[in-house]
Structure formats: structure tokens, C-alpha cells
């Protein structure tokens, strides 16, 4: 649905994007993760054709946006909805009028605008606040209006630029659940920009890590979890710094899919006769499957740790020796 192919973009001497390639499948929710200055916002401006790449191409639904001009470009943009970090609502317009504004841009009649705006607000659970002004709405409600406005033109693609970073954790969960439901119900392809791994963990099917304008790694989340040394997997399931325990080896175990439901650690302790200690664990549901990481202390140090790694590998569990003393 979205193909970003060897795209580069510079501003003077600053290389904002450097040979970036990302592919997002139809109906997929894909996250682009990175810190400030990584090139995330530039990438989004290229996908909605506000800017053009210096090289490479951006294709959305088999249409190369970077090759369009004039009326064709405007029509293509209407097929892409955009949700912003700070809502970008017009303060002197009601919630319904903000949504109507987007419908006016695509040529709907006055009667259709009023009806369709109410329908969109109902879709995001805010029909009862249609006549409220942005100043009368909570942050979560304002973002629901923003989502309704973005969906008013019935786009195929929804872009999200840090859409939950100004919200509290509970409201963030609600907004992400709404986006996930809308993606499933409407067949939306969602590309979201974020620096929050919790966002990726909650709703994304796949993700890419962007650093200094380059893609460091990318792929389906469960594949990343199973990839040795994946930085995204480590960030998805943070365990903090490993403790210094003389006489113990420290192992970080990564589980994905069925492995998370098996009594692997109990078998490790029983079959190898080890008094294993669990130092930390984080388990989440990703793509309908359990995945996560667990940190173990293995008594005996190097040799026992190596035996444990082999034992776990034979059972489909990736174990990484953090330290061995």
C-alpha cells in the first residue's frame, strides 16, 4: 500500500533522509520509531506529498506521489488522512464544523457536510459533543475530532504524527484502541510516527527504527523479537541494566509465540539442576501472540550459563548472555 523506495532528502548540508526504503502492506499498522532529529517528520511530509524527495520514490496505492502535479496531486492527498500531535483544530469552530471543514475541501455540499460530519463524530464516539468548541473538550476528545476530520474524506491511508504524545497514558490507550478498531473496520493502512515504544507495542504490526536519516532495522514485530541483537526488540521489552552478581551468569531470554506459554524456565531448573533466579520479566501480547523477555541469574557462571543457552536454544528460546562472573 505504501512503498518508500530508496528515498533521500536534504536541506542544505543536512541529510534528513538517506536512502530510506520502507514498505507497508494494505491494512497494516506500521510504526516508524526514532528520537528527535531522526528524520521521522520529513518522512511523513514525503508520504503525504507536502514535500518531494531529492531521489527515490514514494508510492501510495500504486500511485507515485512524487510524480504528480496540480489537480492529480490534490486528489491523491485526499486519499491520505493526517492526525497531528497538537490536534490542529480551528478554535472558533465546533467539533462538527472542524470536520465539515475537511469535507468542504473535497467538494461536499453543505447538507452532505453536516450529515457526514455527524457520522464521523459518531464513528469516533463523540457525536454527543458535536456542538462543543475545542476549548470545551479534553485532550482525548480533541484528538478524536482530529481523527474524525482525518477520516472525513474516506481515505485509504491514515498518517499519525506523534498523535498521542500530548496525552496521558490512559487516554493514549483509548486513542490507540480507537485507531486499531478503525483500521480493522475500515481497512485503513496506518503509518504512525512516534518515539514511544508503548505505542508500537500496543497496536503496530511492524516497525522501523530510524536514526540520523537511515533505517537501522525494520520488520514485523514478532520477527524483530526473534532477531538476535534487535534494538527494537530490546526497546519493546526493556529490562534495564543487568546487575553485577559474582558467581552468577546473567541471561536475557526472548520469547515469542508459543514459547511464551511453555514452562521453559521450570524445565531448565529441573533438567540441569540449577537454582535459577528470575531477576525481571516483561510479557506482552503482540499480534495476538505473547512475546517478551525474562532475565535469569544462573549459578555457577560461565560453564553453567553456556549449558543453559544450549538447553534453551534447543527449545526455541533465544538466550543472550549479558554477563558471566
TrEMBL record:
This is ATP-binding cassette domain-containing protein. Pfam families: ABC_tran, NIL. It comes from the Bacteria. GO terms for biological process: amino acid transport. Part of the ABC transporter FtsEX involved in cellular division. Has ATPase activity. One of its GO terms (molecular function) is ATP binding. SMART domains: AAA (SM00382), NIL (SM00930). Keywords: Amino-acid transport, ATP-binding, Cell membrane, Membrane, Nucleotide-binding, Translocase, Transport. It comes from Agromyces seonyuensis. GO terms for cellular component: plasma membrane. Belongs to the ABC transporter superfamily. Gene3D superfamilies: 3.30.70.260, P-loop containing nucleotide triphosphate hydrolases. Homodimer. Forms a membrane-associated complex with FtsX. Residues 2-237 form the ABC transporter domain.
